[in-house]
Amino acid sequence: MIKMVTKEDRDQALAVIVDLIPRGLDAEKEWLRGLLWDGETDEEIELLKSVMRDIGPTMGWKYGHELEGIPSSMIPRLVVDSLGNNLLMSKKIRSFICERYLETKSEEDVVELMHTVGCSNALELIEKIVNQKFVRASRSSFGFCKSLSIPTSFVTKTPSQKTEALIVTRTTRQLPPLMDFQETVCEKIASEFTKSQGRAMVVMPTGSGKTRTTTQSFIEAIKEETISPNGIVWVADREELQEQAIQSMKQVAEVLCPIELNLWRYWDGNDCELIEEDGELVIHGIVVCGKQQLHSRYTKDDPVARAIVETSNIIIIDEAHRNLKWIKDLDTELKSLGSSATMIGLSATPFRREPKENQYLDTVFPNHPITPVDQDLVTYEDIKEAMVEEGILAREIVKKPTDYGITNNSTNVSDQRGVTNQIVQALIEDGHESILVFCPSVEWARLCNMVLSLQQPELRSEYVHGGTPPRSRSKIIEDFRDGRCKVLFNCELLTTGFDAPRIDAVVIARNTDPSDPLFIQMVGRGLRGPRWDSNVKQYCTIIHQWVER
């Protein structure tokens, strides 16, 4: 599988490849023909052929020995972008690099290369780097990259994603103040904490800061000693949301809370430490749970899971609309235990399409929802419009592909990917500077990003998905937030727990019903308004690729 390598790293490797390709008329095409059809092939070259067949129709190429329609200048980037971090796994690529390096570089450079990979002569170099198995994260692979000035991301292994179970807060840094509408919601949430069996649904549109607002409500209550720092449980069903909650708690507590707090990560197989107090097993601290782990272990009578539920004082459930049946069962379980715990649901889109789901909502949360709007009975659209008027949210500008002269009547996957690229290109030409694209598959995101990179190499675009290594993913997302990356293609990420106020266009290439809450979540990624930052836009263009099908 192709792993993510940032555009910055790909460009650096590209410069090395370009420098090694012989000069001359159509030299790049001769080099590519040699890779594709001369001698033995390898998995990476077969992948390159597959990519060329996939993106050929979009790029106007004809796949064949003549390489018709492929500009010579585009070929090195095509190879590097197609292979990603598997570039050096290709024996044919390594052979080309070694042979050309030995032919064109100075004796001093060649000696340095042999020294860094642990060789004494050219034959040994070829044997070790080309003929023998090329191992990632080895002395020879790192040395090979170092001597050639190829980033080591091309030979690193994906690190383990397992996270520490416990972090301890420290009082240190500054914290941006809550906005007035967040303060209002914060106070309403806090008023629920002292109620016996309190139940409340917090409705804040995507992009309005519900995680930070809710976190501050209980951290301030701990500070004021109106609630205990123990027995607080936060439940989310996605790792991004779980980690977002942990980091928000850490940030707020380090500024506002005068005591140290234990923050437990109860997901990814982690556990919490049980302590016996007055004959009861308890957990000291705040527990952020993966919903799946908590549910599975609780049903198996796991002592930690049972302690989390049975000794809880406050349970906060993020994205509550996604887990209504489970919430109803939890509500029933808490009441059967005689628990006085307060339960708070968080959602941007609580109103459901299915009557049974609305019944669950009404049963567990019978009172008026807590909203940023000072009205008792409001719809999601009422809340949203009021926040647009206040500049808290950007106003949606909904457009269709046909508004840009793009037809979308093919059922062919390759053609549909081409439509995605056409939409992105039209938005760029329309002046948009921060475009987020939701793709239906990893391959879709990867190939769309590759096409854009080939068409506009000066423009920074990237793609991310669930398999993107955490550090690479964080760097790409940070660059997108800060405006260094202009277009970000993603697959099954960033629908929740992600905010980038600079976004001025969202493209939904997934075939998702616009009435589906997931669609609303995706649209909401681009809706932070100018109240957050004076440089943020007032409008966000939304295009659903499948709207006319």
Structural class: alpha/beta
What is the name of the CATH class of the largest domain? Alpha Beta
CATH superfamily of the largest domain: Tandem AAA-ATPase domain
The number of distinct β-strands equals 15
What Rg is obtained from the alpha carbons, in whole angstroms? 27 Å
Main sheet properties: 7 strands, mixed
Strand content: 5-15%
CATH topology of the largest domain: Rossmann fold
General shape: globular
Give the number of helices: 20
What CATH architecture of the largest domain would you give? 3-Layer(aba) Sandwich
Average pLDDT metric: 88
What fraction, in percent, of the residue positions are helical?
40-55%
N- to C-terminal distance: 32 Å
Tally of separate domains: 3
Q: State the strand order across the main sheet.
A: 1-4-7-3-8-9-2
Q: Catalogue the unreliable spans.
A: none
Structure overview:
By secondary structure, this protein is of the alpha/beta class. 44% of the residues lie in helices and 12% in strands. The strands form three sheets. Strands 1-4-7-3-8-9-2 form a seven-stranded mixed sheet.
Which key terms come to mind for this protein?
single chain, 549 residues, alpha/beta, Rossmann fold, 3 domains, 7-stranded mixed sheet, 12% strand, globular
Short description:
With 549 residues, this protein is an alpha/beta fold.
Topology:
Elements: H1 7-20, H2 27-37, H3 43-59, H4 75-83, H5 91-104, H6 107-117, H7 122-131, H8 139-148, E1 166-168, H9 180-192, E2 199-203, H10 210-223, E3 232-236, H11 239-256, E4 262-266, E5 275-277, E6 280-282, E7 286-290, H12 291-299, H13 303-310, E8 314-317, H14 324-336, E9 342-347, H15 355-364, H16 380-389, E10 395-399, H17 413-429, E11 435-438, H18 442-455, E12 461-465, H19 470-482, E13 487-491, E14 505-508, H20 517-524, E15 539-544
Parallel strand pairs: 2-9, 3-7, 3-8, 4-7, 8-9, 10-15, 11-13, 11-14, 12-13, 14-15
Antiparallel strand pairs: 1-4, 5-6
Helix pairs in contact: 1-4, 3-4, 3-17, 3-18, 4-18, 5-7, 6-8, 9-10, 10-11, 12-13, 14-15, 17-18
